[in-house]
Amino acid sequence: MSQLLSLRHYHHEQIAHSHEHTQLVFGLTGRLDFEVAGHCCQVSSLSLAVVPPETHHACASALGSRCLVLDVPQDDWLQQRLGHHLDASRRLLETPGRHHKGRE
After folding, report:
1. Which pLDDT score, from 0 to 100, does residue 2 have?
2. At what angle do helices 86-93 and 75-82 cross, to 10 degrees?
C-alpha cells in the first residue's frame, strides 16, 4: 500500500476483492452500489462504506461515481496517530457497511 488516500472513479464494471487492510470509501459524487460481507448498500455524498480487513467486497456504479478512498494501515500506524482514541476508532473500522451523516 503505497498511497493512503486516493480519488477513485467507479463505473459499471464490477470490482470484487478483499485485502489485508481496512478501507474507508467516502462518497463524493454519484452513487456507488456496494456489497460488503454479503450486505448491500449505496455510497453517495455524505456517506461512507467501511471495509474491514480480509472482508470480501464488491462495487460498481451504473452512472459513474467518484469516491475518496482511505487505505488504513495496520494497528501500529493507528496507535501512533490516535493514541488513546484507538479503541473507539477500531469499533468503527470493524463495522462493515454504510455509514452516513445528514439526509440524502
Report:
1. 58
2. 140
**Residue 84 burial class via C-beta count within 10 angstroms: exposed 0-12, middle 13-18, buried 19 and up:** exposed
Give the cell for residue 94: 470493524
Condensed to tens digits (0 to 9), the pLDDT of residues 50-98 reads 898 899 999 999 999 999 998 988 767 777 767 777 676 666 666 666 5
Q: Which string of DSSP letters, residue by residue, matches 8-56?
A: EEE-SS-EEE--SSEEEEEEEEE-EEEEETTEEEEE-BTEEEEE-TT--
With beta carbons less than 8 A apart as the criterion, state whether 28 and 49 touch.
Answer: no
Q: What is the pLDDT of residue 22?
A: 87
Beta pairing partners, 30: 65
**Pick the residue with more confidence: 84 or 18?**
18
DSSP lists the bridge partners of residue 67 as 8, 27
User: Residues 41, 59: contact at Cβ < 8 Å?
Assistant: no
